[in-house]
Amino acid sequence: MDASLIKTFLTVVTTESFVAAAERIHVTQSTISQRIQKLELMLGHQLFKRSKSGVGLTINGAKFEPYARSLMQLWDEALYQTSMPEGFTGNLSLGCEESLWPELSANWVVQLNETLPTTAISFQTGEPQTLSNLLLRGQLDMAVLYMPVLRPGFQIEHIMDDRLVLTSAIENHDGNLGDDYVYADWGPEFAMAHSRWFPSLRPPKTVLQLGPAIARFLINNNKTAFLPYRVADDYVAEGKLHFVKGGPEFPFPSYAVWTENKPRELLNKALLELKHAAQNAPWIELDK
After folding, report:
1. How sure is the predictor about 241, in pLDDT bands with cuts at 50, 70 and 90?
2. CB contact at 8 A, 116 and 92
3. 287 found inside a domain
4. CB atoms < 10 A from the CB of 238, how many?
5. Residues forming beta bridges with residue 164, ordered by sequence position
6. Residue 204: band (very low, low, confident or very high) from pLDDT cuts 50, 70, 90
7. What is the CATH number of the domain that holds 49?
8. Chain segment 107-116, per-residue pLDDT in tens
9. Is the full-model pTM beyond 0.90?
10. CA distances (Å), 201 to each of 65, 97, 178, 187, in order?
């Protein structure tokens, strides 16, 4: 396996740009294009499509993404196991949803490195389904997820609350939910809170269950929906999305999910440092 091809693919997915991907992994844009073309030839399918808003996955690209993340995780694990420096006594493989990095998980990793100086740590961000599958296969020891699915062998504990906030691609939105509004499915608790707040709102014409990727849908189609604050804030800072002033907010908890594949003492330390990081995570009040 050519790990550089997989790494390049995942970097383009994350940055949504060949130029930004080239800057992130310190190669030329032509190198990025060549690697993606080589990968597409190997798979026999186009993986990306270009648009005015950036680079997005094709249907086949979206199908390939979870496998790419699994391959990269396996490769990283193999490197850790075969080249762990002398003096290291163990390793931890951690992950989180992209919107929980860097405010929460970056601090978590820094604190863990100080608390566990002889433990090698690998970290990745990804989609919840991908991270859950890695946990099931034992390729991930602990992950932080917004809406974890309870599966056999999973241990789950509440860590912190984000907020679901009304966000729109329409500047100066008046807060009335009309044809521009799409219902983002953020789970049963949100559904109940949403129905209580908007008791007379007619059933939504469009219901989406896209996770953080829904932000791009709003931008591309001039729509409005509830998004986690930590998903929306970067787009708002760039002027691509706007918080709707006066809109309601709903709690959106995140959880630590882990399996018992590592010594309990090691997992306890990882969980404790995650809680410390959550206590220190920035919490910015919206301008109402």
Report:
1. very high
2. yes
3. no
4. 9
5. 228, 250
6. confident
7. 1.10.10.10
8. 898 899 999 9
9. no
10. 37, 31, 9, 18
Answer with the one of 44, 59, 83 that is the final residue of a domain. 83
**Secondary structure class of 256 (helix, strand, coil):** strand
| Contact by Cβ (8 Å): 223, 182 | yes
Matching residue, tokens 């990269």:
72
Query: Phi, psi (5° rounding) for residue 5?
Result: -70, -45
**Residues 6+ positions from 129 with CB-CB distance below 8 Å:** 66
Q: Containing domain of residue 106, as a range?
A: 92-282
- Pull the structure tokens for residue 52: 């005015």
* 40 CB-near residues (< 8 Å, 6+ apart): 46, 47
Cα three-residue angle 35-49-217, rounded to 5 degrees = 130
| Half-sphere exposure in the Cβ direction for 159 (13 Å, CA) | 31
47 close to 11: Cβ distance less than 8 angstroms: no
The whole-number pLDDT of residue 285 equals 44
Residues 121-135: what's their mean pLDDT? Answer: 84
The helix/strand/coil state of 115 is helix
